[in-house]
Amino acid sequence: MKFGVVxxxxxxxxxxxxxxxxxxxxxxAEYIWHDSPSIAxxxxxxxxxxxxxxxxxxxxxxxxKFSPVMAAIKKFASAGGPVxxxxxxxxxxxxxxxxxxxxxxxxxxxxxxxxxxxxxATTDSPFTCEMTKGSTVTFPVAHGEGCYTAxxxxxxxxxxxxxxxxxxxxxxxxxxxxxxxILSEGRNVLGMMPHPxxxxxxxxxxxxGLALFQSLIASVPALSSSSSK
Amino acid sequence: xxxxxPDLIARNRLTQSEYDKIVSLLGxxxxxxxxxxxxxxxxxxxxxxxxxxxLKKLPTRSKLVLQGPGENAGIIxxxxxxxxxxxxxxHNHPSFIEPFQGAAxxxxxxxxxxxxxxxxxxxxxxxxxxxxxxxxxTKSIVKGVxxxxxxxxxxxxxxxxxxxxxxxPCYNGNPLVNVFALGVAKHGDIFYGRATGIGNPVIxxxxxxxxxxxxxxxxxxxxxxAESSSKRPNVQxxxxxxxxxxLEACLEAMKTGAIVGIQDMxxxxxxxxxxxMGSRAETGVEIDLKYVPQRETGMTAYEMMLSESQERMLxxxxxxxxxxxxxxxxxxxxxxxxxxxxxDDGLLRVKHNGEVMAELSNRALADEAPIYDRPHNAxxxxxxxxxxxxxxxxxxxxxxxxxxLLGSPDLCSKRWIWEQYDHxxxxxxxxxxxxxxxxxxxxxxxxxxxxxxxxxxxxxxxDPREGVKLIIAECCRNLSVVGAEPVAATxxxxxxxxxxPEIMAQLVEAVEGxxxxxxxxxxxxxxxxxxxxxxxxxxxxxxxxxMGIVGLLPTAVPVPMxxxxxxxxxxxxxxxxxxxxxxxxxxxxxxxxxxxxxWGLPPALDMDYEKRVQTAIREIARAGVAASAHDLGDxxxxxxxxxxxxxxxxxxxELNANVxxxxxxxxxxxxxxxxxxxxxxxxxxxxxxxxxxxxRLGETMRERLQIxxxxxxxxxxxxxxxxxxxxxxxxxxxxx
Lengths: 229, 736
What we know:
CATH superfamily of chain A: Class I glutamine amidotransferase (GATase) domain
Strand order of the largest sheet of chain B: 8-10-7-11-9-12-13
Strand content of chain A: 15-25%
Number of helices of chain A: 5
Shape of chain B: globular
Number of helices of chain B: 25
CATH class of chain A: Alpha Beta
Structural class of chain B: alpha+beta
Oligomer: heterodimer
Number of strands of chain B: 28
Helix content of chain A: 10-25%
Largest sheet of chain A: 9 strands, mixed
CATH architecture of chain A: 3-Layer(aba) Sandwich
Radius of gyration of chain B: 26 Å
Strand content of chain B: 25-35%
Distance between the termini of chain A: 15 Å
Structural class of chain A: alpha/beta
């Protein structure tokens, strides 16, 4: 399959996502520049990588939601195409309205970079279908604004609809209900603060992130046959 | 009618004799703008006028060194068609005045030095020195500096993978922020700061010029006094997003082949970049300030030439190919403007509003600054440290001492600091902060680079020459423990006022010791930084040279520092080496934290033995026979054994040494490494081959650390008991 990795001027995990998808997961990958008005037909999955999109001196992702590529990604997602937003990518997805809620400053008010244990909360998604429900994976986080927040009704709805993909076992940022990653209503958009792309290589201490790529590889053929994209 | 008054000369921080030299070089009186340009270029910070004659004593060559000192960064060959560029630089003075921006722009400055050369930065480390934690401003300086580094490095997208942090009252009014950065480039893709090709356009790229940071270089060249806080406007403000754009745009523009030379605008901004590029290429540079992108109105030529606005670069392109360069910068949304041309007259000519405001020889500015052989015929300053050991009773409770040491500011965990730094971005971090040496893999070559940053102001106060040698030995040992071969070094010389002979003597001793050790350990100096005048109200810092040494190694899962499981043999490569001469105990962390004093001399170093220990441990690590390895440094054997236990597996150690328990556990003798192994025979055989002692200390076991010497139990503690003060000390003292 082919991954499209979006590059905003301030993306800084774009190379990592590209490397994980290509060198580690063995798939094709190409970069998508932030002013692209459309997503090429041969892209099977879009990754919004971590970084600081346009500097993010305002709210993280607040400017990015106006970029041409986001309009294209909305179209891609509404046609059922899988979109993975990691860290800054998650922030952009909430700002763009592709996912509910918002990411506030960490409750400790400082940047945090460490490995955190996550519970795989659902396997009913193209991103987690190859994982084991309830199992623990360890991914690194690296963010200053990762405190997931939404109103009670939205949080209840996310739980009721089984749309929480990952929960923190040791919450590093004060996120509501230990939420580390959530799915869209159509389950084809995943936003998460932890970085699966950083743990796809034995040299990085773990390959637990590969399961996310393997899930996509396993589910994409079914997705593309069921959607017109 | 002369416009140059003695007052104006003094305000540009030039002496009368320096002014006289300017007049004789020019054959006329300088204009006020020209005087300002000389003032910054001949500042200590830019000209190295007090240190230059001594820096010449340093070894700078080896078969791996592709670029030594004198460029923006040093470069060494790592094989496979690739090389690494690295350097360390200080931002001490700005970080005292405005800790957040001072530290942030310190990171920005060194990153530009790396990517100016065509290398993409892949790692940053920091050596930080703060005052005592109970001094009034220390906590806010620590928080400001750490968040400044975090802010800049994280946004830029470079992992901050290690460093070291020390607290000492001598830094109360003068913290040190030394930032090391390393980047990787392909052979043949290296760029230099040279304005070659007469008629080529000189192009300004990046952020607009403002009034910030004017005369920052001169500020960094004087002592602090009570009015220093009024210098806040001299500290620049950093924009890491702009730097990221500049990085990507520069690397992409370099690929067009249209760029012939490039240099960042760091200290002394537009002035330094123009005249240094011209001087290196033996050309002239003519610029017209009306083309310089400005974010303030009504700036004078003086202000524009001396501004230290951040995130700016100067480049020289091939004539006729400007549009290729402009297209790349436009793509990244950056200003790129031709502001002048390369000329054949060797002069820096600055026009403003149709008038020539300065016309000076590039050589005179960049290379003909006065060189001082400052008097150093005094004993190096030792503050109040006596030579003789005080009469101190052998410790009655070394376990309590160990717990206190583990929770002391220098030895406790620095997790609170490094968790605020993104240390895994770029997915190259094979070993990150909190280990003996950091390791990044180089994806392009399939090999790895290890790096270690170290300094020890206490050792250097007691003996600058031997102190520096110990620092270099420690860096090389750190690298060897992870299996890396040390190959090159960068240095940051942080000292007080060089006009005081007893301070100058420290500098000279340190440089000579450095020369000897770097030659011996085959780690030539490829560049670095000198930061003098680190004094506040006449009180100088300890002599604080910081070394950054890099090593090469095959890519592999690293040997951990912590004991991985119970039942392994614990060996001490190098042997106990306890020096019973109490004079050698006065620089230790024990003397600092338990006895609250300092005396005597640093630990004795046998460089030849040290090198053999390093060769042995490197071979042990690479042979895969070590289950864990950790070198002994500050805090000695006791602290190192505790650190090895913090993964949850401790050890039962049985010593049989006829020596005081406090010396046994806390002497800081070099040339020692703890190894845990299931194959003691193989480890012993390697040690023996290199003529190095290999002492069996005991065996790893679950959950406790027990240390016995003969019949007496020195330590018998649960790991939690030892680890708790170590892991919480820094955070709780910053919170209180």
